[in-house]
Design brief:
Elements (H helix, E strand, L loop, with lengths): L18 H11 L6 H20 L10 E5 L4 E5 L6 H8 L34 E9 L9 E6 L4 E5 L9 E8 L4 H4 L1 H12 L6 E5 L4 E4 L14 H16 L6 E6 L4 E7 L12 E5 L2 E7 L10 E7 L15 H24 L1 H21 L1 H7 L4 E4 L2 E4 H7 L2 E4 L3 H13 L4 E2 L6 H6 L1 H4 L4 E4 L2 H6 L2 E2 L2 H18 L4 E7 L7 E4 L2 H15 L4 H8 L7 E6 L3 H7 L4 H18 L6 H22 L1
Parallel strand pairs: 1-7, 11-13, 16-17, 16-18, 20-22
Antiparallel strand pairs: 1-2, 2-6, 3-4, 3-6, 4-5, 7-8, 9-10, 10-13, 11-12, 14-15, 19-20, 21-22
Helix pairs in contact: 7-8, 8-9, 15-19, 16-17, 19-20
Bound molecules: adenosine-5'-triphosphate (ATP).
């Protein structure tokens, strides 16, 4: 008997990490641009100040700060923050993915800090091969100052410094940029980046150009919404000026945003120009003053594409790259609350500032229409004010409904073009329902104006309402109509004679897109007769609806045409009437139609010249 083989216990092993590869991956592939190294250094310094203030709660607000220095050959960031002991350096600085900001025994809450992942410092390898840190801990005042040098290959050294090396608590990080990173580390650029990322930071930050000895505060003033102003007018002018400075346009209006629950403040700038529907703009998002993203889309719903915002929030969570926000419940609630704020602004304008509302709708009616389709409240507030194309020109629906008890609406722009002139001559009020949202919105008018009636208008309905001609005229015109039908048979077009206003319109071409598609399909089925496609297309066949050319008996040209005796000229005149009516409908012409228009024009010209000679 053979003994069962007992498998040897599996040995526990540990992943091997190629440090150089890991550092390269995190530092080069997480961030969008090398410039973020400065944001990460500033953020670490600011987080260290936050920890220091928690440690020394009685210290005055501006007691601890951050100082940046650059001279073209080095960038130095010095802070009066909480600092590090040698043990801290091993644990936090030298361990990728370890962050002091997650440690549970901390008095501060994790939410007090901007950082949390323990990888931000690696971004320094985007511009330098070595990170040099000197630090003294405020938590352990007796501990000596410590020096750490971390290199891009994953190696590092630590040593304690002599007692006099750094007397005050805090940390200094020095980078010696690589030759290829000069663009990001020259003094003027460091200053510009510090202002870009740090202009709203709440701790004092200064910049010094060591070469020319100049220095300047990076964030000399609080955020514009945190300042006090002599009057409400001065406040709104200052906020608009700030919007113009950051976005490069003068806002049509500036909406203040304030959500105390998440410590969010900021402004929404209403764009002064139309934006293509659906195109979303990025917003500038600061967290605890630090600029995280200029292109954050996620703080507002899609319909809000008529504003760009600058916000500063306490409790939104950035992702590891820091260039977007975590999609969590807080973000969803913020989005909802900000949307509510924009709605309230629209409601206020509709209720009490018709001038502002008019300017807003002139530019953004498309955005508002897309919003009104899904939002009953906006629909109720704004539908009467929205502009539509109608047989009375461009007008608001409210105005239009006042003169037309029954509002007729077409389902395509083409149909509107075909029948607008005739319908308005007959006293009918028609709205062009062919543009996105328009037909749907017009049909909802009775919800807010119960006295209004809305009905669809299609070409067939209108044709039925055109007056027939008397029997005698019909008989006299029969030969011409037969010839015209024969000439236009290639376009599947019937020809009829009616009387309608305006008399100046010689002919109407009644056709719809569906009818044209149906005719194309039938034609293909005929061409493919017998084949697989012929069977399939044939099975789908319906009675192919025909186009209709309706000639206007009231029009002098038509009267002259039906009396033409010369058959060639009669054919040409029918073609010319068809071509003119097709052009008036402004739909794209088929190649056969374009050549028909060409041919009939040249024939008529030749005829006229022959007659004159
Ligand atoms: N200026 C500083 N002062 C004190 N401690 C610092 C400073 N800079 C870095 N540290 C320490 O090094 C740790 C790692 O920093 P790093 O920037 O890599 O990550 P983080 O800030 O914790 O998180 P994130 O990756 O989200 O930025 C920090 O948690 C902190 O303990």
């Amino acid at each position: 008997m053979t003994q069962p083989v007992t498998p040897a216990p599996a040995a526990d092993r540990t992943f091997q990490v190629d440090l150089r590869g890991l550092v390269d991956l995190l530092s080069h592939h997480l961030y969008s641009s090398p410039r973020v190294y400065l944001r990460e250094l500033l953020q670490n310094a600011v987080d260290a100040l936050t920890a220091r203030h928690t440690l020394e709660p009685d210290a005055p607000a501006g007691a601890f700060g951050v100082r940046l220095y650059a001279d073209g050959s080095a960038v130095r960031v010095e802070d009066d923050g909480v600092g590090l002991t040698e043990a801290d350096v091993h644990t936090f600085l030298a361990t990728i993915g370890r962050s002091s900001k997650r440690a549970e025994q901390l008095a501060e809450k994790r939410g007090d800090f901007i950082g949390q992942f323990g990888i931000g410092l690696l971004s320094c390898f985007l511009v330098a091969d070595e990170i040099h840190v000197v630090s003294r801990s405020a938590r352990t005042p007796g501990a000596p100052a410590v020096e750490w040098r971390g290199r891009g290959d994953g190696s590092y050294t630590v040593r304690t410094l002599p007692a006099g090396a750094r007397t005050r608590p805090g940390t200094t990080v020095t980078l010696t940029p690589r030759a290829d990173a000069g663009e990001w580390t020259r003094p003027a650029q460091v200053h510009a980046l510090a202002r870009h990322f740090g202009s709203l930071l709440r701790h004092p930050v200064t910049f010094s150009d060591v070469l020319d000895g100049t220095g300047a505060p990076v964030n000399p003033e609080p955020a514009p919404w945190a300042r006090t102003y002599p009057t409400p007018g001065a406040r709104s002018r200052a906020l608009a000026a700030y919007g113009a400075e950051v976005f490069g346009f003068t806002p049509l209006d500036t909406i203040e945003l304030d959500l105390p629950a998440v410590g969010l403040k900021g402004i929404a700038c209403v764009l002064p120009d139309t934006v293509p529907a659906g195109r979303r703009h990025g917003h500038r998002v600061h967290v605890k003053g630090m600029l995280l993203s200029e292109q954050a889309e996620e703080i507002l719903p899609e319909w809000a594409f008529f504003v760009r915002c600058v916000i500063d929030a306490e409790s939104l969570r950035p992702t590891a790259s820091r260039e977007s926000l975590y999609e969590d419940d807080t973000l969803a609630a913020v989005r909802e609350a900000l949307a509510e704020r924009l709605r309230a602004w629209i409601a206020r304008a509709a209720a009490s500032d018709p001038d502002l509302l008019g300017r807003f709708l002139q530019v953004h009616h498309l955005a508002v229409k897309s919003l009104a389709v899904h939002d009953d409240e906006i629909l109720r507030m704004l539908l009467p004010w929205l502009p539509f194309e109608t047989t009375d020109g461009h007008t608001t629906l409210d105005e239009f409904a006042r003169t037309h008890r029954t509002v007729l609406v077409t389902s395509s722009v083409e149909e509107f073009r075909q029948i607008a002139a005739i319908a308005s001559a007959a006293g009918l009020g028609v709205v062009n329902g062919g543009y996105t949202y328009d037909r749907e919105l017009v049909h909802r008018l009775p919800e807010i104006r119960p006295e209004a009636t809305v009905a669809d208008l299609d070409p067939a309905t209108l044709t039925a309402h055109l007056d027939p001609v008397d029997r005698e005229t019909e008989l006299a015109a029969a030969p011409y109509l037969a010839l015209a039908r024969d000439t236009l048979a290639v376009f599947d077009c019937d020809v009829a004679l009616r009387t309608f206003q305006p008399a100046s319109a010689p002919a109407l071409l009644m056709d719809s897109r569906e009818a044209r598609h149906e005719r194309t399909r039938s034609r293909l089925a005929r061409e493919q007769e017998g084949g697989l496609w012929g069977d399939i297309l044939g099975a789908l066949r319906q009675e192919a609806p025909r186009a209709q050319l309706i000639l206007n008996q009231l029009n002098p040209l038509v009267r002259a045409a039906v009396a033409i005796e010369e058959p060639e000229l009669a054919r040409t005149s029918a073609e010319a009437l068809y071509g003119q009516a097709a052009m008036l409908s402004r739909r794209p012409l088929r190649p056969a139609e374009s050549s028909l228009i060409n041919r009939s024009f040249l024939d008529l010209l030749a005829h006229a010249l022959r007659k004159d000679s």
